[in-house]
Amino acid sequence: MDKVATVHGRFQGLHWGHMEYLDAAKKRCEHLFIGITHPLINLTNPAHNAYSVEETNPNRNLDSSNPFTYYQRYVMIKNSLLEYGFRQNEFDIIPFPIENPDLLLQFIPSPARHYITIYDAWGEKKYNMLRGLGLDVEILWTRRNSERFTSGTEVRRRIRANEDWVDLVPPAVFKFIQENDLQI
Prior knowledge:
By secondary structure, this protein is of the alpha/beta class.
């Protein structure tokens, strides 16, 4: 079992596929750092949204793909993990600016193993980027996009279309979005 490990994602919003990833990672380490990528998305200053377009996943930087602030994502993750049975002293939630590898090392614990999953070219690129930084990276699984339980894209699509989406997210996420009347 690893002492310290990280996982990361945009978590726009947190869904059951993310929970599978977080649970698999936590079972392999004593303390898990959950990194939120794109921590400056959805701020009032448009300059903060100026992430470069990622050619392997061009929609990831669109405003419509990033409706939740860092804080909102933080609360959804924390509440969902506690609800799921994680203990507060077993995890931390941190910024994880994967989009800026030069800054990334300022935010992550060292040493740590970095768990990732690969579904597409973007996942392959992240794996190579992290390895290029000299980090210890372990692939938890490689699957095709069609093998995903769901995606943040599908969750957001259903919310916008007023379709049922409660089954795609942990109860804490549904409750947080509803109670705060979050518009996406």
